[in-house]
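Hi all, posting the design record for the shared folder.

TITLE: backbone redesign
STEP: 1 of 1
STRUCTURE INPUT:
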């Protein structure tokens, strides 16, 4: 029988629990807090707690990546709007992959033979089956199992 792994990390990434403040974001990106507030005013970056006026701004990992990428493009000569647009376009495949993985991720288990199985939930074409992924020789492999 498979065992559940302890310390499920889904909520950490999926719910935006990895956050940093504006000072840390400024240090990481080399962009001043004043510029970051301007970028926020223009709608290019959005703090996680934007609906809480008067509170210190905190940013999710997604916004950290976006701000860092925008900073690099600005240094390469892009305008602010062009940098933001370019980053949004470049992030689309990563956002799709993120949603495919984390929206499907149900947890992980240790299989009968000791391998780690990633539970991707119900297999859409056949709801009586569950889809799992595992690594075999560093390559992802998929397994269908009858739903319990």
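Okay, here is what came back for every position:
SEQUENCE:
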């Amino acid at each position: 029988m498979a065992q559940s792994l302890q310390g499920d990390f889904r909520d950490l990434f999926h719910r935006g629990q990895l956050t940093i403040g504006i000072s840390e974001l400024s240090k990481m990106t080399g962009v001043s807090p004043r510029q970051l507030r301007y970028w926020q005013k223009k709608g290019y970056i959005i703090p996680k707690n934007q609906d809480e006026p008067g509170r210190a701004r905190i940013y999710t990992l997604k916004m950290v990546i976006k701000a860092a990428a925008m900073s690099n493009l600005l240094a390469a000569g892009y305008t602010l709007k062009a940098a933001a647009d370019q980053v949004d376009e470049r992030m689309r495949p990563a956002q799709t992959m993120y949603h495919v993985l984390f929206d499907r991720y149900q947890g992980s288990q240790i299989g009968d033979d000791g391998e780690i199985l990633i539970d991707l939930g119900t297999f859409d074409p056949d709801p009586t089956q569950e889809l799992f992924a595992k690594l075999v020789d560093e390559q992802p492999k998929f397994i269908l199992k009858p739903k319990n």
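COMMENT: Residues 1-7 have pLDDT under 50 and may be disordered.
Let me know if anyone wants the other runs.
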